[in-house]
Amino acid sequence: MDELSVRVHRSDENLAREDQLAWKLAGVAVDDVEVSDEVTEMVINRVIDNAAVAAASLLRPPVTSARSQALAHPVSIAGQGATVFGADGGRRTSPEWAAWANGVAVRELDYHDTFLAAEYSHPGDNIPPVVAVAQHLADARGLTGRDIVRGIATGYEVQIDLAKAISLHAHKIDHVAHLGPSAAAGIGTLLGLDQATVYQAIGQALHTTTATRQSRKGEISTWKAHAPAFAGKIAVEAVDRAMRGETSPSPIYEGEDGVIAWLLDGKDARYDVSLPSAGEAKRAILDSYTKEHSAEYQAQAWIDLARKLHDEYPLILDDPDRVERIVLHTSHHTHFVIGSGANDPQKYDPTASRETLDHSIPYIFAVALQDGRWHHVDSYRPERAARPDTVELWKKITTVQDEEWTRRYHSLDMAEKAFGGRVEIVLADGGTISEEIAVADAHPLGARPFGRAEYAAKFRSLAEFVLDESEIERFLTLVERLPELGSDELVGLTITAAPGVLSSVENPTGIF
């Protein structure tokens, strides 16, 4: 890996383009290194994973809205258009709008892959814009499944490398500010663009996708699912502009009025960013992990621990009167973002939105403890959240920050990196129950790591109510051949809902 020291430069220092972070990221994108078999297999897994969670969300209002927006737009004239999840494969739209609709479908349930370090990320958000552009330009540029694999590998590499080095949330900037550049870089790899063009696209994408974290604070709105899709859409547009010769603010990261100086650590900031050396394989996707449960990633291990405790102590934990209090000793992020340290009263509100409950570890732990399971629909139903015994137990659950769990959370040693903690349950009779968990069961180091069979099973389980069985098997068979797909087969990288499914919900109307 190459180590790049990034700091703010005065305008009169004239930081050379070749020394800028955006240029180095573009260099990663244009490096024509082969993708390893191990990485290729994981790319296939994540394409399946994205389709699984998209299928489960096809009828949810934000997805219906984004899909109706996308399908209101015609195919742009430069290509054959891109497909939209749920719609018939013959129905195409312009690639930026396909990236938008499919990005919302993938993110809506917060149920796909994750990487957590200095910053948070869902690197699977790179897949919709890369695939949309590939479908649109498949014939015009002779793109194949191999090109898609390479583009996705770049998107993951850039986003994860940025997430390891540069914290956005510390300054209340939303994590999708790393996604705009990574998606632009992934598209650059897909299309085989030159470094100067990708550099301009990365700068434009970053400049136009920075926003505050209020989208994940307080009463969390449906924009939580739209924000990464917007970044993917903007990345497509940024690449288009750069290909036409348009330029971007420079230096976008290091400038005295740039992102670091005014949105992040300020004029005295210094970040050490590690990027693959020329000719070094892009392997960052292997450091990421998917979700077995539809909840914030920091909740995954806690759900697994709650299931274990439910099985071991059913007579005690089914009755909230037997519990005095429950304290989750965990990382800084879990405590302050989804725990009681956030000081969000909505995290204890039985009438809160699904998006808010998804970011409440006290709620999630209470329900998983009582039910011994977690379900992407049932566990969030209003009647489930309002159950009196659940509310009683829920109010007894708090979080505290633990320095060791915080250290392990931020560790870049993947063998010790952890997202769990220790639970202390104090019983009304004075007894205590104490257990800990480091990583989720589905994590590569967990009790039951996900492999191809588990990804396929997740897809079948989530898609069975909206896709015909033949469509499920068609998609799986096609995706497993991803690196071998020819240009004419890329259009098949979508899912078509069973007859009558999409018409069961009303399409909202707007300007388009």
TrEMBL record:
UniProt keyword annotations, A-Z: Lyase
Domain MmgE/PrpD N-terminal span(s) in chain numbering: 20-271
Catalysed transformations (reactions): (2S,3S)-2-methylcitrate = 2-methyl-cis-aconitate + H2O
EC number, as in UniProt: 4.2.1.79
Keyword Aminoacyl-tRNA synthetase: no
Enzyme class: lyase
GO MF annotation, one: 2-methylcitrate dehydratase activity
Record has Lyase as a keyword: yes
Entry-linked SUPFAM superfamilies: 2-methylcitrate dehydratase PrpD
Record domain MmgE/PrpD C-terminal: where: 293-482
Superkingdom, taxonomy of origin: Bacteria
Stored Pfam families: MmgE_PrpD_C, MmgE_PrpD_N
Family according to the record: Belongs to the PrpD family.
Assembly and binders: Monomer.
Protein name as it appears in the record: 2-methylcitrate dehydratase
Record organism: Orlajensenia flava
